Amino acid sequence: MNTGATDQPHEPGWYEIRLQGRLDTRWSTWLDGMDITPGTDGTTILHGPVMDQSALHGLLARLRDIGMPLVSVARIDPDKPPHTTRSDTPTGE
Fold first, then answer.
1. Are the beta carbons of 76 and 31 closer than 8 angstroms?
2. Mean pLDDT across the stretch 15-21?
3. What are the phi and psi torsion angles at 18 (to 5°)?
4. Structural domains of the chain, ranges and CATH numbers in brackets
5. Which of 19, 20, 43, 82 could be a cystine partner for 69, CB 3.0 to 4.6 Å?
6. How far is Cα 51 from Cα 9, in angstroms, rounded to an integer?
7. Rounded Cα gap, residues 65 and 86, in angstroms
8. Residue 64 and residue 10: Cα distance in Å, rounded?
9. Are 44 and 23 in contact (CB under 8 A)?
10. What are the tens digits of pLDDT across the range 66-81?
11. b/e map of 33-43 (b: 16 or more CB within 10 Å)?
């Protein structure tokens, strides 16, 4: 599968993982120090570096064990802020 990323799978990369439901920030340590941010749409966003594909699979297995439904996994540019949903974007009201 080609993700469009120029890095090789064995190299570190930054990921954004979106889960359905709320996950408290205290889980961050158990999830390899990923930043945990609540979305305004009832999701939780994990954001941070992952060492390689093996570490990513381990992280996903831990999320499976918690029982949180997985919405999306994306490799991202670390220099850009985490992706937000339309409901996360200020409307100017």
1. no
2. 97
3. -110, 130
4. 13-79 (3.30.70.1150)
5. 20
6. 9
7. 29
8. 22
9. yes
10. 999 999 999 998 877 6
11. ebebbebeeeb
